[in-house]
Target: Low temperature requirement protein A
Amino acid sequence: MPSLRTRMVARDLAEPHRASSPLELLFDLTFVAAVSQAAGRLAHATEEAHAAGAAGAFLAVFFAIWWAWMNFTWFASAYDTDDVPYRVMTFVQMAGVLVLAAGVPSAFDGDFTTVTIGYLVMRVGLVSLWTRAAIAHPEGRATATRYAVGVSLVQVLWVSRLALPGDGPAWAFIVCALADLSVPLFAERPRMTTWHPHHIAERYGLFTIILLGESVLAATNAVQGAVAHGLSAGLVVIALAGLAILFTVWWIYFSEEPGEGLADRRDRSFVWGYGHYLMFAALAALGAGLEVAVASAGEGEHGIEADATTVVAATAVPVAIALAMLWALHAPLGNVTVPPHFIAVAAVLVLLTVLGAPTIGVAASLTAIAVVLVLLIAAVLARQTRAT
Model:
């Protein structure tokens, strides 16, 4: 059982064997519903040939998902006490995630009211934790106070945005998002919080697995629906190619070990942490793309409106972005395992499958993407073998 109350002081940044707590893992699971809703809506819009219109809503919703997860993750790495008050405030944030997830469908239709309310609930829980840290930890009081005040002020902007017609223009969202992103940059200036580099690396890895798991779930549901209307060779090829793509993307992502890099270059943590927005969004979009690819195997009345080029692009573009971000995130840490020229060649070849889609079809294009990723892994392994 947790203690009733523990003084909230900064944890040791060199704490040995630091790992994710069961509460953090449970917290992550609440994001499954939100990510699933966002990816599912993007998939349906792509199937109906409205991907361009839905992309903005997807990126906006995913920003709220990612930023809320990220804020709690870095706070927990520095101040996790796992006592009763801490668990209660974590529960409040989890409740906010579920409200946010419920509002995703409306957000794709242009109404961000429910998403904003869910986001507000999450921020109330986070501000309470920062306030508690400011009271209990004198050495970090300035930083914790800046976080509490900064998050609160930005949340006023988000709520005020709802008063504008249609939730306001796109630039209003961008202003609020930039204000949110600026809070840690402002708050960490007096004293950087004692987040644990290996713990943070593990937390990001676990969220990556959740996103890839969502891709598996989306593809499985799509296969189940397609099989109900008759199994085809094209469906089998797409399903196997999709699984191979997911597996190789997982392999490539975890080829890098950022823990030591974050420990040696703590000043570059903002680049690594913020940059994961594009990486995570790409992985979530990949799940949507694979769902669309499976749906494209349907025939007749069970087919989709999107053409082969759009279907393949829905998978190829997220994969190419993920590859590019792999280098962009780890290069500043000085520990890149996959050479940049390998990444560049693979990303270009993946994007070229979009051009060939009308000729060779969806199944062959996804197979080609999988082959490119397998060859990338093989090239990296061969290079490591020669080096040893």
Q: What stands out?
A: Residues 340-387 form the longest helix (48 residues). The two ends are 49 Å apart (CA to CA). Residues 111 and 167 are 7 Å apart (CA to CA). The chain has 13 helices and no strands.
